[in-house]
Amino acid sequence: MDTTQILGYIGALIVGLVLGLIGGGGSILTVPLLVYLLGYNPIIATAYSLFVVGTTSMVGTYQKFKEGLVDFKTGLAFSFPSFIAVYLSRRYLVPGIPDTLFSFGNYTLTKEMGIMVFFAIIMLLASYSMITNKKEADLIAEKQAYYKTFIQGLVIGTITGIIGAGGGFLYVPALVLWANIPMKKAVGTSLIIVTINSLIGFTGDIQTIEIEWLFLLTFTFISVIGIVIGVFLSKFISSKKLKKSFGFFTLIMAFYIIYKETNL
Question: With contact defined as beta carbons under 8 Å apart, do 196 and 57 qualify?
């Protein structure tokens, strides 16, 4: 095992820790880690990210459930439009994107570059959500009509399908805003949605790409260890302060990805 692999597995542990501590952000670390440190193609990296984040979140869901911080009914209802969108985008939309998005003079924006830039834009939005750190009282609103939630679930599912994210950083505020769930319970409930969306989305990838199972299962196992530790530590550490710090880290990573992919 070389130094790069060791660093990759350390990164897997951190991915799990982040998911356990703040209920999202696993893919924000997983995709750049797989692409820039371990050298995977962004299409493969986003697929692997879905499996890693989905499996790890499943373990986290069980832990949160034991603490009474999971609303299964709301989570399952909310996940329905999302997992449809995630599966369809991984099975048909991502494979259907042309290899060259556009060319301008000597500059060419490829499919791989486009996915990473789109991922960075979502990271920018996520970082804003984490840094602003609104109070729960400011977020809670009346429940909206289900058809609106269905449409929003399709939109979030499509976005997370393209970038290979579990979407916890999008689903937590959505559950608070639309389902009127308290913040701590929203974090636990979001893990159900992330689990279902990610693993169903990954089944779309199995049919289109070759999976390196030994590496993927090892990486995932280490990430699972991380989330077990993270959920335990979340009882003693302020998730709000962690979320804000991680938000600034996400902001920096987003600009780095844009710089790296566009060569600005």
Answer: no
Phi, psi of 24 (to 5 degrees): -170, 180
Buried b (16+ CB within 10 A) or exposed e, 12-28: bbbbbbbbbbbbbbbbb
Rounded to whole angstroms, the Cα distance separating 105 from 255 reads 24
For the stretch 85-136, pLDDT in tens is 888 888 888 888 888 888 877 778 788 888 888 888 888 887 887 787 565 5
Report yes or no: 204 and 91 within 8 Å, Cβ to Cβ: yes
**CA distance linking residue 211 with residue 83, whole number of Å:** 21
pTM: 0.78
Nearest to 49 by CA among 104, 123, 151: 123
> Residues with Cβ < 8 Å from 50, sequence gap 6 or more?
27, 86, 90, 164, 165, 166, 198, 199, 201, 202, 205
DSSP letter string over 90-108?
IIIIHHHS-SEEEEETTEE
Residues 231, 60: contact at Cβ < 8 Å? yes
- How far apart, in whole angstroms, are the C-alpha atoms of residue 9 and residue 30? 11
